[in-house]
Amino acid sequence: MKNALALLMLIVVWSTTPLGLAWSTLAFTPELAGALRMGVGALITYLILKACGLPLPNDQAALIAYATGAIGVFGGMYLSYLSVQHISSGLLSVIFGLSPMLSAFLGAKFLGEQRLNPLQWLNLSGVVFGLFLIYRAQENAEHISLLGLVLAFLAVNLFVLSVIVGKKTQMHLQPLQTLTGTLVVSTLCFSVLWIAQGAPLPDASHADLMTSVWASLYLAVVASVLSFLAFFYLVRAVNSTVIALPTVITPIIALGLGNWLNNEQLPLMAIIGALVVIMALVSFVLLRQRALAKAKQEMA
Q1: Per-residue pLDDT for 52 more than 80?
Q2: pTM value?
Q3: pLDDT at 214
């Protein structure tokens, strides 16, 4: 039951996070938006940590665990902030849908999880074809660019890498401890980048200033605290493929929200490409779960 609730929370939050990223950078630079989001999130989780009577470990093993988490939280999120400047929030969610495949591949390589079968490799070919259609659509689209697609792909790779490495480095910590330490490290990283760029502040008269403020608060409280708590819980509780399951569902919702709330008009070829990617991912995850269930039965 807890696993199902955590997955449902991730689906809701991850469906709205790409749009939050886009809105938070309307008035803020990506570096400032990230620093505010992570900083507020770190403060909230630290207060919760103290209220629960839990320490924030600072030994070498804990620092390694925080740095591992920051690979995805800082690295993946920063590239996501940058990519959403060049592609629609919905397409960012579609690219993040690749994480189940990447998780399965890296999980098989580094965690000894089950290898991909021929049908799953066929699904991978479908994803590549769908991405090719999206790429071809960029010439006639306002919300698609090769740079944005590359940044989003790099972001999801960092996200998945943090999941795989975190399986081995974070097991000795409580999820709340891991989250707090990771957010502190990520806040420092974003702040250093912001200061290095001259610490630019938004214009107080900017028309979208309050939109960016509220979007940043939403990302800090909901996306950076509640969803990451659910995420770190799932990292400890389930295999790496199931962790990424929400990303199979969220692209459809995110595409609809982007079109409805942010006027993200995509050409027909891009929509077809996104649907091809989503269908291939759904098929991949279903096949993956069936293969894992079969392997468990054989071992029993």
Answers
A1: yes
A2: 0.88
A3: 96
| Residue that has been written with the tokens 């902030």 in this structure | 81
Q: What is the three-state SS of the chain?
A: CHHHHHHHHHHHHHHHHHHHHHHHCCCCCHHHHHHHHHHHHHHHHHHHHHHCCCCCCCCHHHHHHHHHHHHHHHHHHHHHHHHCCCCCHHHHHHHHCCHHHHHHHHHHHHCCCCCCCHHHHHHHHHHHHHHHHHHHHHHHCCCCCHHHHHHHHHHHHHHHHHHHHHHHHCCCCCHHHHHHHHHHHHHHHHHHHHHHCCCCCCCCCCCCHHHHHHHHHHHHHHHHHHHHHHHHHHHHHCCHHHHCCHHHHHHHHHHHHHHHHHCCCCCHHHHHHHHHHHHHHHHHHHHHHHHHHHHHHHHC
